[in-house]
Amino acid sequence: MLCLTLGTLAAVLMRAERGAGFGPGDWQALRFTLWQALWSAALSIACAIPVARALARRQFRGRGVLITLLGAPFILPTLVAVLGLVAVFGRNGPLNAALAGLGLPEVSIYGPWGVVLAHVFFNMPLAVRLLLQGWLAIPAERFRLAASLGFGPRQMIRHIEWPMLRATAPGAALVIFAICLTSFAVALALGGGPRATTVELAIYQAFRFDVDLGKAAQLASVQFALAGAAALLALRLSQQVTFGAGLDGTVARWDASGRGHRALDAFWLILAAGFLLLPLGAVVLRGLPGLTELPPVVWWSLWRSLWVALLSTALVLTLSLPLAVMATGKRGAWVEVLSTLAIAASPLVIGTGLYLMVFPFIWPGDVALIITALVNAALALPFALRSLLPQARSLAEDYGRLSASLQITGWPLWRWVILPRLRRPLGFAAGLTAALSMGDLGVIALFADPDRATLPLQMYRLMGAYRIEAASAAALLLLSASLALFWAFDMGGRANAGP
Amino acid sequence: MLDLDELTITQGDFALEATLTVPQGGRVAVLGPSGGGKSTLLLGIGGYIATQGGMTWDGEDLSPLAPGARPISTLFQAHNLFPHLTVARNVGFGLRPDLRLGADGWARVAQVLGQVGLEGMGDRMPASLSGGQQSRVALARVLLRAQPLLLLDEPFAALGPALKVEMLDLVAQLADQNGLTVLMVTHDRADAERFAKDTILVAGGRAHPPMPTQALLANPPAELAAYLGT
């Protein structure tokens, strides 16, 4: 892990010294990266506040499904979502049809605002979940007290909800800001050009088109500093991001039962659900007809993606499990630092570093898939650790003494205690890693030559060649494969897991 | 014989001093105000927290031994069974930590289960048993481990009064049959009177040497009197 993050960075830095100066285009990329991350974070939070509030104070059928759906963008392949957004908001989509019907000018999804739109699509659900946690963490007694004092909605916001938001929203915004800083696939598909190139995308372009390794290395150093600073800040400011445990309750409210408030909440919930579901529905609808006519090269890329995903999963499991168990011991703080490093690392930076390291010895294209699996594992590791750590801690707390008193150590400890007790989070972490790795379009774009493409890269090529029908079918295939992998691992962890 | 010689048990910023001996086969209650260090004493003897000073069992120095290597079985306040393993496996750990028992071993597991009144329940999961039955599973494992010193850190506190008495009687009976030395933490004077001839008073950062329970309770020192409300 350390080798992957710091080692590759060292390779990058050594090369960057010899690079050319920082040109106006590079400054432009830096500015755009910050600009889009800022807008993406602000808009995600702004939209998430009314949605989270509606979820916090309304109980309705399908609420659980909606909350599960809010977790889906996390394992959704980026390009699939982009294709769905293009279908809805693009030139031939329903939005522009409606605008044309009203005699209004057409809007384009390509360019800076398209990038922001896609980021809001991915991160607004995350923001909703973070804020919902904040709402549900307000003690029920406080709402009862407010009701007994006759607070109306206005006082409720002022005395209860606004202080909570002031405590949680900045952290959530910063997490999203940090995530958007390392955006590559979205910028690749919807951005580009001088007005909408992120630093990550600039690294790729310097690498792939200009074949200017010095410049790529220089941009990679900038990116590392940027993402590192943001990740450290976000870690300091944010509460732990959890994956859905404990979001089932609602708070009893007496202040917002009026018809107007109900209609307002319904409006926001329907809007959010539509925003998430319509693009996905579009992918399924457009993809289905083309499924039977997919070219064989797509099926081959699916096969490659599958084994990249499984290799990453195996790597993450063998790394994260000992790390999580170690984190409960005396050297626990180390593990936290390690996982922070991995968050700060961007795939393109690691990719650039690896390229510089292996280039003198082998042709990087030959090891593209292995490197992709490795990098995907490094990127998924912090999330795997996050899902494992709480359980590993309570395992040590509850059963550490019992195990010690019975002298259960070494392999028997793993076999009879650790593995069975950590099965559920392990299954979840494996599913998460497999899905993330399956859908990733990052480092593979740097390395792969045409006959070694993974499914997301193949899909990107089909999009680039304007073979929309085939691209949609490939997207549907990718979506199904990612969800199926996640489901299989997660279910594997749950089945017969016992108490 | 358990011999504590100027033993200091440190837990965070709390320290407990102990100089005392417990004879072989003794049944001793550990009594004192909450937060006085009753559990700390047992955790120190068990090897779960750091200690300084002399601590021997029959002349053997316990300090360098890992918890599981000490001649001790412990029943904790909670979490005495692995909920994901069957009753038989939970008990089997008393014989071998890797559970490679063989036919003989499993036969002995079945036998001790019979001894505690759980015949034929080896394949059940702990969650399907009552609280009292779960305590019996843990006791069956103590028998199989066959270590001379048994530490009870209020393992029956969650049981109802009648069931608790039943379990204490069972422990007393098993301890007599197997010649066990028992240290039992309790905050209930009735438990001490019923179960233990002698009592260690833990208060004011000290674990005092065992005194006859009857005499101690009849004429309690000030700290104990305040706690007992007598």
From TrEMBL, chain A:
Q: What does the entry list under GO cellular component?
A: plasma membrane
Query: Where does it localize?
Result: Cell membrane
The leader peptide range reads none
| UniProt keyword annotations, A-Z | Cell membrane, Membrane, Transmembrane, Transmembrane helix, Transport
Q: Which residues form the ABC transmembrane type-1 domain?
A: 30-234, 302-489
Membrane topology type: Multi-pass membrane protein
Q: Which Gene3D superfamilies match?
A: MetI-like (1.10.3720.10)
Q: Which domain of life does the protein's organism represent?
A: Bacteria
The record lists the membrane-crossing segments as 34-52, 64-89, 109-132, 164-190, 216-235, 266-285, 305-325, 337-361, 367-385, 426-448, 468-489
A single GO BP term for this record reads: transmembrane transport
Which PANTHER family would you find in this protein's record? MOLYBDENUM TRANSPORT SYSTEM PERMEASE PROTEIN MODB, THIAMINE TRANSPORT SYSTEM PERMEASE PROTEIN THIP
Q: What name does the UniProt record give this protein?
A: Thiamine/thiamine pyrophosphate ABC transporter permease ThiP
State the organism named in the record. Answer: Harenicola maris
TrEMBL record, chain B:
Residue ranges of domain ABC transporter in the record: 2-229
Keyword Mitochondrion on entry: no
- Name the InterPro entries on file: AAA+_ATPase, ABC_SmlMolc_Importer, ABC_transporter-like_ATP-bd, ABC_transporter-like_CS, P-loop_NTPase
UniProt GO MF annotations: ATP binding; ATP hydrolysis activity
What keywords sit in the KW lines?
ATP-binding, Cell inner membrane, Cell membrane, Membrane, Nucleotide-binding, Translocase, Transport
Superkingdom of the organism of origin: Bacteria
Return the SUPFAM superfamilies for the record.
P-loop containing nucleoside triphosphate hydrolases
Pfam families given in the database record? ABC_tran
Protein name (database record): ATP-binding cassette domain-containing protein
